[in-house]
Write a structure and sequence with these properties.
By secondary structure, the chain is an alpha/beta fold. The chain contains 15 helices and 21 strands.
Length: 465
Amino acid sequence: MSRPAAAVNRVIKAYDVRGLVGEEIDEQFVAEVGGAFARLMRDEGADRVTIGYDMRDSSPSLAAAFADGVVAQGLDVTRIGLASTDQLYFASGLLDCPGAMFTASHNPAAYNGIKLCRAGAKPVGKDSGLTTISDEVITGVPTFDGAPGTIDDRDVLADYGDFLRSLVDISALRPLRVAVDAGNGMGGHTTPAVLGPLTSITLLPLFFELDGTFPNHEANPLDPANLVDLQRHVVDSKADIGLAFDGDADRCFVVDERGRPVSPSAVTALVAGRELGREIGATVIHNLITSRAVPELIVERGGTALRSRVGHSYIKALMAESGAIFGGEHSAHYYFRDFWGADSGMLAALHVLAALGEQDRPLSEMMADYQRYEESGEINFTVADAPACVDAVLKSFGSRIQAIDHLDGVTVDLGDGTWFNLRTSNTEPLLRLNVEARSSDDVAALVDDIGAQIAAQTTEGGTTR
């Protein structure tokens, strides 16, 4: 069957598939996506697809429909069942086959989606397969004349945990009390498998029950409101560190022993330094939203800093092209060459735990080594006309602008370590702002100035921050 192009393109986005279940995504739709994906992978030589899914109520049935679409095109399917996204990437690498992960990550319960990859967790994005898939869903997926594929099941959770621990030297780990907020997401599934066997760690779990309705808070630690429970838990339990995972547990956020969030940029710099310690001169990727401290520290540690636009499919492609040893994003996605160039928040967490546990300072003091500037964090605005808002902001700064680029949205350098980036979201109807400066007062003033310009341009319903 054919489908309206506008409806398909609204759901098949720049680097994944995502939409409202029942309205934009249903079993028939994902079966067609599965068929188109199978045809693309078969043309590239694949004969099997591995499938995992998160704890959302809609995930099992959607994953089953996708599997039906794949086997109808003659490819076999290996189901790994409940999984984090990085566990699915592990299965893709282990089995050397393409993969599909059913999740809407941090989005609310009404949403679901699919993250697709080639064998070895290689990305499938708009420019590397998603456009082909969407075009075929629009015109209608052709019927396959051969025999259908088969479906089998494989549990890879223990293997995933063993593999991650093999990548980080944890031999010098001192006893640590580790608070973890899984947000009722897949971190509650993977954390015990990865951290549980480490006898030096006392695990202090919070919201480990898998529940796709997210009864305690949204599984989006990028929003400070969703870190409050963990911050309180860290202080109350006298933990040495707090870890928060998003819904599909591919991102990890860190809270220090005082209950204060640690910037993902600082985590990127820390992990980069550890990876460069074992391969001096290696390339490390950072997206354009990370702190300027990240490329500075990469160069100081003898590495080559490579700047990227935001988004996992872009960074994964750049990881492969450049042979980079590591990559980090402001959103707490962390990519590792030893993990097939894919992202794993759990692997980043192991690096932070290893760094903390091999020395005696508290986390707050250790991470101060990586914090040179003040950041706003990502601020979201819902606006009537995003381009008009961006134009108004740029005009308001006039001659104060020292440099500007358009690698991803617009990045404006105002000099003396002060810069901001405005970009539209690839997954949500939002205008995103990131600001960095030498002091928190400078950051606050710049955020207020930009926010005022955006508000002045908004003609429908005001702005939502």
